[in-house]
Amino acid sequence: MNPGSSFGCWKVIIILFCILMFVASIFSFSAFKWLESLPINSETIGFDFKFNSETGEQIFKQTFNTTLNGKEIELEIADEPAEIRQGLSDRKEMGDAEGMLFLLERGHHPFWMNRMHFSLDMIWIDQGIVVDIARDVPPPSETGGVPVTRDPGVEADMVLELTAGGAERYEVRVGQPLDIEGLAR
Fold it and tell me: Do 28 and 63 belong together in one domain?
């Protein structure tokens, strides 16, 4: 065995390890920058995983505890294309103190009840003002298997989904500013 070749192998391993650590530090730095770019108070954000029915894999879930018109709620953020497509589809239930907030580019955003298992209130928000509410939208099991689509007919940059009756529980009305503590948009 040649002692020089063994030493050379260790050099390569150490160099590769240093490169790997450097790359990892860059990615972790970008993850923190990504967190800071979210329009929420990053001190209250939580992370979890959820099931993605399209791929069969778990995907990252961003949640934060906040208040909506002064009442406590846990909101899940959907701001990536896969999260927006998946939404609440395939979930068996959601608590009355939970919701999903879709952060979107300003535009026209119809929503549908594809693969849903419970009724929802859908609230369209544009620049902090509630512009439309679809109340008690039923799942396909209550509409002959056909997913209902709701189209607000107005532009919005966010959509908030709550369990049926949520708009009433949180006292949300069309035309009012929506006060979600910690959300800066």
Answer: no
Q: Is residue 185 part of a domain?
A: no
Residue 76 and residue 62 in contact, taking contact as beta carbons nearer than 8 Å: yes
Closest CA to 124 of 98, 140, 139, 104: 104
**Backbone φ, ψ for residue 131 (5° rounding):** -110, -20
- Bridge partners of 100? 76, 161
The CA distances from residue 102 to 20, 82, 131, in Å, are 35, 12, 15
Q: Calculate ∠ Cα 181-184-185, nearest 5°.
A: 130
- For 37, other C-beta atoms within 10 Å of its C-beta total 9
> Which residue numbers in the chain have pLDDT < 50?
1, 29-45, 47-50, 52
CATH number of the domain enclosing 151:
2.60.120.1140
CA 127, chain centre distance (Å): 18
Provide the number of structural domains found in the chain: 2
